[in-house]
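Hi,

I'm pasting everything inline rather than attaching a file, because the server keeps stripping attachments. The sequence lines come first, and each chain or strand is labelled.
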Amino acid sequence: MTSRLLPPPEQLPDVLPHEVVEIPAVHPLVRVHDTTGTHARGPDEPRWFGPLPDRGRFDHHPAGPPRDHRPDHGVLYAACRDPSTGTGRPLDTVLAEWVQEEHELMLRPGLRLVVLRSERPLRLLDLRTWAQRLRAGTHLSTAAHQAVQQWAHAIRRAYRALDGVLYVPSTGGESVAIALHEQGCDALAATPLLARDLRDPAMLPHVQDAALRLRLQIVLPGR
Amino acid sequence: MAATAPDRDARTLRELAADDRLSSSARRLLLAAADLGEDDAALADLADVLDGLRALDPDAMAALLEPPATRVDVAPGLPDAERAVLARIGLEDPNGTDAPVVAGRVVRGRFELSCLDAVAAATRLGVDPSRIRQLLGERRLLGFHATSGRRRWLLPEFQFQLGLVGLDAWTVLLRALPEPDTTSPTALVSWLTRSRDHLGDRSRVQALLDGYPVDHLVAEAGAFGVAA
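And the predicted assembly:
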């Protein structure tokens, strides 16, 4: 479901102190890492290719057909338990983001669940508070991708000192979603805490449980 | 097995599963679908799918109802360090239900039933089936192999209905997309046929037919299957 979102103002206001959230260095960040395909990248590397037309709401790449914007515009999506409560299922959030079309969770070989940590605290624009002040509210989680990408581009341009944004995922739940900018990715430890193929027998049961919670079908190409 | 789709809910699926004429595979399939809940439209058509499967030969039906992918492997023990990491992100002691995998196979089976085989496609175009296989090999037609029997081609019907076959732009777009057998054909068809906000609520194939630049669609095709 999408909702109506106005374009961002020409100039964004200064960020207020309570609109910046800090993710501690020890806090595990979860993402789906694609090790295959044309746009394969390292587990801690941003995606320079964008903006994606049907996904990646916080792609801040310049508008237009997707292309490689290295080294100026890169983004890495992750999820984590809410740092203030320690609750939530970030696996559900990242799998919901990976859904391709029609409630399908396509588990290609080479898709890995990666758990990362940063080597310093990450300072993120907290859209839960900032977007309310800008009257964008929850639209930034639910509006059409291209409309939100305009905001992402404006945020990236206006708040260069921040590492990215923190937002409520469109799928809801208690975990929070993160879109890290390039400099935020520089803070990530190169060696993940965990990296397992989603089809790994040790991981698949967790993925199946998450799919059931999210009412997704699992597709296993090549089997 | 004659209930109509709209009123089929989880309870109905469980009642259908109690029919002792069903094979154990079909019963398991229905119960798995019922576990997924009431409001999944695709699964609500499950009985229709099973009816359709009966039209297939027994081997093909068995392959769809009891595919290897529905078997859940026993998870080996993870090292303690990794188990601790999973616990920190809220993952402990999974149930490992295979219902979502079964559901994926059901939807795939239903989709396959909606496609043309090479003979039907040849009849539609007034050519020999060998010509269809040649066009598939050249990626001038969208097609993929059936789950059961990897040599059987299936072709989504919309490309014939919309007059895409033979258009150079259609060939260009098809060749920019992943080989359907390496991905999900249903996701691929949805990518092509579902309306998109950024195309003025048109689908990509409709935009193509309206003269939208194929180069732009080719660029978007490069994003198919890319993780956000």
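Chain B touches chain A through 58 residues (CB under 8 Å).

If the labels don't parse on your end, tell me and I'll reformat.
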